[in-house]
Specification:
tRNA_MeTrfase_TRMD/TRM10, alpha/beta, elongated, about 240 residues, two-stranded antiparallel sheet, cytoplasm, EC 2.1.1.228, Alpha/beta_knot_MTases, tRNA processing
């Protein structure tokens, strides 16, 4: 059994494992390479209606998830000595990066809180040290789809899940660039042939072509990433050789 354990706190546990029960992640889950538990937050409510939210202090639209109910759910799922990071899927969180995904994959797992309504009481974020994580500049109906995205990104990096551990080495974001284009049979598709260099058998030229294409795509589509890439490359060249 892998040490990676995911606990998802949600109002909709039936959404899990969802896509995580299929393909590579699903097979890894069946093998016990990782584990997943979905915790129903309403189980920690104290009234007969299983209420987990209330009106926002100061007025305003919508409802806010209560700090006391969430605290009970978190504490029951993760005792004080649990080393796993506590994540809150939130549009105002720090953007999820491949670097953070790799950090999580190398760790013991994660506790993931899925917000609903207008959000969660700020005091639970502070009291339990929740790390707010965003998967993009858009709004979802709840944190569950975001949690599925995060866990999919992490689980595929666990040892043995992808089969070939080098499969992800040249993927987008792994080396600061977007991924180069891919081609396969047929050699000619509607008058569009595979680039000659890819069938040349010259591995050095193929590597150079892929690198150049990755840089071109990144420069065109993600100038922010390309600027960071240029800075990193300049720093490497300027670093003293040992």
């Amino acid at each position: 059994m892998s040490g990676f354990r995911a606990s998802v706190l949600t109002l909709y546990p039936e959404m899990f494992p969802g896509a995580l029960g299929l393909s590579l992640a699903g097979r890894a889950l069946e093998r016990g390479d990782w584990s997943l538990e979905a915790v129903q937050i309403r189980d920690f409510a104290t009234d007969r209606h299983r209420t987990v939210d209330d009106t926002p202090a100061g007025g305003g639209a919508g409802m806010v998830m209560r700090a006391d109910i969430l605290a009970k759910a978190i504490d029951a799922t993760a005792p004080a000595d649990d080393p796993r990071p506590k994540l809150l899927m939130s549009p105002r969180g720090k953007p999820l990066t491949q670097a953070r995904v790799r950090e999580l994959a190398a760790g013991p797992g994660a506790i993931v809180l899925c917000g609903r309504f207008e959000g969660v009481d700020q005091r639970i974020i502070e009291a339990r040290g929740l790390e707010e994580v965003s998967i993009g500049d858009f709004i979802l109906s709840g944190g569950e789809p975001a949690a599925l995205v995060l866990l999919d990104a992490v689980v595929r990096l666990l040892p043995g899940v992808m089969g070939n551990d080098s499969s992800g080495d040249e993927e987008s974001f792994e080396n600061g660039l977007l991924e180069h284009p891919h081609y396969t049979r047929p050699q000619d598709f509607e008058g569009r042939p595979i680039p000659d260099v890819l069938i040349s058998g010259n591995h050095a030229k193929i590597a150079a072509w892929r690198r150049a294409e990755a840089e071109k795509l990144t420069r065109e589509r993600r100038p922010d990433l390309y600027s960071a890439h240029e800075i990193a490359e300049s720093a490497k060249k300027a670093a003293p050789k040992r």
